[in-house]
Write a structure and sequence with these properties.
5 copies of one chain form a homopentamer.
Chain A lengths: L8 H29 L9 H49 L6 H23 L7 H4 L4 H8 L4 H18 L5 H26 L4 H25 L4 H23 L11 H15 L18
Helix pairs in contact in A: 1-8, 1-9, 2-3, 2-7, 2-8, 2-9, 2-10, 3-6, 3-10, 5-6, 6-7, 8-9
């Protein structure tokens, strides 16, 4: 997540460098063409780029809106993960009898929940889901088990269900409480699936493509029209206009894919850290980590 | 689902071939008319196509948005199917007592759930719902039963309910657990119904029709206006503009119907495969299939 | 529901006949005025209709979007009715003990559910809710009871509750199961209320009115502007443009009211038929009706 | 709720009278200024009002959409109240044992529910919540109790909870049934809170203000531009355009506040009456009132 | 929350002062440039600012809409807090047996719920969450406990769970009732998490940035175009147009962040006060505070 600070100009510029270069190219080419072949070039009436400009602005605005919705949905899913992780541990603590090994199971489940959050975040970003930080919170057997499984975060939920079963069979929770905690696990499973859905569903490719093509069509026609009327000034003005359109297009593109290990990502590691802090405080542990701080201009 | 790769030009071109041809036709005809009957043709003021262009761009953008929502809803429904299939098997495993034939019933239900996903996908696409792949996971009696039923996926859910009843009567699950699992089956039944709803509800036909008609009206008026001002150049420019509008219209049309056995479909077979993998890992089976890989530029 | 076939031209034309006629009228009148009183008519600058055209296109597009949402909500409500009807019967079958007269009650409730769907559809369309088709599925006492009640579909749900009470008192269902089935009845009651809400809430009348007035304002100003520039051609061009706007307005109007016994209605009878088929197959009855087929270009 | 009939012209005109008057004023002033100070007035290029017109139309259309959503949300809340009131009474009837004074309590609760609906409606509209009509349905003690409470409708729900507690303690309902009915009361409490939220949350004031200011800015600039080109005709044309914009703005404003005791309100009294009829029919009472009929052109 | 009264002009003006100043600057600069270097300045065709104006209006309108949705979501979250706080206390009162120390626990929980609302509001606004007003309602031990915790409102919910556990163990509530109350606490935990999500998720920074940049680009181009056509009048007209765009942009910006201790905030303190009043009336306490009154033109 980009934070509310001064974003480095280089970061922004790098995103649209290539597109701006090609715009620069054709606007220069048209300028030269005009000098030598003035009679063969059409005199584009200015209303033509106006029609195209309004149309592409519209399509782009809707596209941005859809991308924004996708980004916000991803954030909501991780918000639900925060809420359900907290409720999960609070329910475990409020329901289980404090006898026998129930306390041990409870602690194991709570720590596993912390690991699950980190693990899901890494896995969505295509990184090793059992990296250093979170395995600290898992028992040896748990690690051995999830190594045999493809979908690591799902495997952790399976272990949760197994432990809940044990709690029920040792009568540490009653049937109602089991079902209530199971509902919370189901919601966690839902959130995981939703994040995977957003991650694995490509934003309609042709839609993205045609919007890009449409912007170029608009800029070419605009360039042809401007070259007639304002001559050399056309080059900087066109570049500015092009950069605005391309920047907005790129903003949309980044919001469409919120788990790509980029600065514009949903801050899943920071969220997992928050959950870790909350859960450890419920368990009244002494070593509670600090919240994650932003790296330069973004928070991962 | 189209994947994030280079889409073949031929695939895209084929979609708008016919419409582009007719645009080419009338732009040539207007050009010839102008040469011979210049005095009888009206001099269309350029603001007229501007009004129409803005209007159709607006209507088209909203139409695209509604189509996008429909496509995303379809994807969400299948996301819910993934989540509930996983929860279903996890609940079965976490709840049922491991005594008597409960283990056999559990395995049968889990395999039936895999079959259900494939079966629903095929059925939505209008293909034989009991094709090779999924029947592997069904028992003989199950197959015999669903052959007598019209709605095959619904019939599989009925068998789930019957098996759940058996589990309850043999006291392998307690009353709360029965009701909790029943809620999961109800959600699966909901998702099935939602997918059927999207599939069987035609996008308002007249709406679609008038949008198409409106694009033509705009292009004809634009052609008449351009023929006056830029002559022969009108033909390529109009063709480019027309192609953008028609491509966006077609993109919308494809998103409206996400279960038509086309490359733009929701990737139901790939999703069913993911569910198969997940469930088989929960059952700790040895033979787990690989995820489906894209065929050229799309994933079914 | 209009189906994906060739819609008869007459059907479409009839919708906008009157509006087109009045447009034709004033465009001819302006033409004549111009011939005789040319000096007194204002020379409308073409940007004026451009502003108005863009504005009304915008308002219309939003209006269409709101109408579409309303139409889709109505369809979703009926989708939920399909799902809950299926779940209802499946739950009844999966829960009730097969002893005593539980079987009879179950069958009666399932048939009543079929009748409820038809009855609700008829009632929403303002037709006699106890017409021939559905009463076949009701017992004599049921019919006598609902005749005394104003809201027939609601009365059928009351009878459901009464029968569920009987099942519980004869211990055919346990307390959890009673509450679970009651939740399904509550959802059916919700869907019924939602459909009634859409049906009884008039789309904001002034909004509808001002949009209509705005279209006329635009067309009058456009006509005045065109009469100056393109003369006689103004008449066909204006008619075409007007027809597009009016057709889109009418499309919105029809989507706003999806239960008016018109071809653009939500296909409630066809949906009720689907439910009938599904429920009868759950009951494994022999006589299962065929799905409803479209009448010419629409499905009721 | 305005009904689908001929809305009196006076009602509509009164809404925009003041704004139209001020538009008339400045358009006349500009006209006079032009006659005397023609050299000092700027010649506004017509594209300037075009830009402003498109922009304000956009902002207005979005504003209307947000207002519409708010209006529809209010209607949905009252739809949920209808559904939950019906379910509430149906559950009470289906669950409670018919022994002891359970029947009396049931009847009291059902009547209180009727009173609650009227009471909430009155209270939202800022009228005396214990007016004549609904107190008929309340017992003496109930009235005495709610008189001591600030939030009358909430106080009635408290009494519901108390009675439900009595039913449970006298074993007229079992624990599951108590919880199920309690869930319904919770949903009623939610709907009440939602209606209060819509009522007490002012639509962002500055947003509303700037939209109003923007319309004026547009009209002033348009007036300056028109005065140059079409002279005296400017006055009627500007008035027409202004009235369209102001009427749409007012439509939005009315939809933003659906509980203000105005003709555009959500028809809460009529809805409460519907609930009264439904509940009385469940109780099989003999005296069932008639549905509320519209007063002239609206339904309260 | 700004209330529906006359907003002081100074408050509004201060928001856009800086931006207006820079607009004034460059419009004056262009004017001077034109006087001296008239031959070197391009003659911007007026359609160019028209294209840009329409585009930025569009992007801005969508931006406003997204901001509005965020603001409304924040308000909805606090609406849910009102509803669930009321239901929570009503359930406690309706469920717990009136024996032993259950009454004391109930009262403590109800008072803690009041404190929680104030505490969450303060905490969201970055103020000391244990300020004077609310600690009045907490016991000594509670205050000592939450002082050791990072997330104060979450700590209060933990104490709720602990007390609920005590109620269950002393058999003051039965298992179903415990689970039902636990569901309400879970919903409160959800609402808290949702408010934190809105508060901690920065609105996409680059999006906000490019919109701001786009407005400037539009104003510069418009200024260049106006300077040609209307001379000195350009300065006031541009300032007016600029102020409209900047005011709408700022309105959006304020709605994006509804918990910043500003007049445009969601009125969390006033809402907490309402909850306090409601809960104290449920407990039938004698000292009930008055609702919060607006400070000048806003309500906190």
């Amino acid at each position: 997540m980009l934070i509310n600070t001064r974003i480095p100009f280089r970061y922004i510029f790098r995103k649209v460098k290539n597109d701006l270069l090609s715009v620069l190219c054709f606007s220069v080419v048209f300028h030269i063409l005009k000098l030598f072949f003035v009679d063969y070039l059409p005199i584009i009436p200015f209303q033509l780029p106006a029609i195209l400009g309004t149309s592409i602005a519209l399509i782009l605005a809707f596209n941005l809106n859809q991308s924004y919705d996708r980004w916000w949905e991803a954030r909501k899913v991780w918000g639900a993960i925060v809420n359900d992780s907290r409720s999960f541990v609070m329910q475990l603590k409020g329901f289980t009898r404090r006898e026998g090994d129930a306390g041990t199971i409870l602690k194991r489940m709570a720590h596993r929940q912390i690991a699950w959050c980190y693990c899901l975040g890494q896995s969505l970003r295509g990184q090793d889901p059992i990296a250093a930080e979170q395995t600290r919170h898992l028992s040896e057997e748990d690690i051995d088990f999830i190594k045999t499984q493809n979908n690591k975060p799902f495997a952790l939920l399976m272990l949760h269900t197994e432990d809940l079963r044990n709690l029920y069979q040792s009568e540490a929770v009653n049937p109602f409480q089991q079902v209530q905690i199971d509902s919370t696990i189901t919601r966690l499973c839902d959130s995981m699936g939703k994040a995977e859905r957003i991650n694995s569903t490509v934003f309609p490719v042709t839609y993205r493509l045609f919007v890009h093509f449409f912007i170029y069509l608009f800029l070419v026609v605009l360039s042809l029209a401007l070259v007639e009327t304002i001559g050399l000034f056309e080059i900087p003005i066109l570049t500015f206009i092009a950069s605005t359109f391309f920047l907005l297009e790129k903003t949309g593109k980044h919001m469409q894919d919120p788990f790509r290990n980029k600065p514009t990502d949903t801050a899943v590691t920071a969220i997992a850290r928050t959950i870790e802090i909350n859960i450890k405080q419920v368990l009244q542990e002494e070593e509670v980590p600090k919240p994650l701080t932003p790296e330069k201009f973004y928070l991962m």
